[in-house]
Amino acid sequence: MMRGLGTTRGVIAALAVITAIIAAIVWLAPDERALGDGIKSVYVHAALTWTAMAGLLAAGALGLALAISNRDDVAEWMDTVGWVALGFFILSVPASIASQLVNWNGIFLDEPRMQLSIRALAVFIIVQIANRWLPSKRLRGAALAATLAAVLIVLRFAPLVLHPKNPISASSSAPIQLTFAALFALSLSAASVIVWHVGCARKLLPVAAEPE
Fold this sequence. Notes:
Oligomer: single chain
Helix content: over 70%
Distance between the termini: 17 Å
Shape: globular
Order of helices and strands: HHHHHH
Low-confidence stretches: none
Number of strands: 0
Mean pLDDT: 83
Radius of gyration: 18 Å
Number of helices: 6
Largest sheet: none
Structural class: mainly alpha
């Protein structure tokens, strides 16, 4: 089954199924006492953000591994995971804007978390692109690991004004927490499917033949 994700049809089918399940869960998701059904946009935003953060952690760990090992396959995996994490990071920004519009009736670009997220995204894009021109794989790994560590630390300790602190995990509602956990798991699964597919395309993994 996993080898089938190396094919275009396989990855499209897997992502379509995951997306359909996510849509169904969001539609059926419980409301929150203060936000009402506005919590549904928060579910999506938080799931994408957590997936991006998990991807950044994985890419940073691969960067450290590359700095130590200097292996070509580790460099390829670091690059792959980094770009997929970046994709989910980008998706989390419009999801955040949509959540602001739903719950705050406007977009607040002065919110520190929002400003830092946009700046961190810009830095990550620059490093991902510039990293390919560094003279050694070890330097590439160390540079990416250091950058991602800085990004994660800055985002972790960003001051909050309007943005609540961990509104879902702090909730006493088990259905709300379970809904988010399911959406995060599905979002992480989608990212893993994409990483696996790209790994197959880069011949880092065995590939199943495309059906006729």
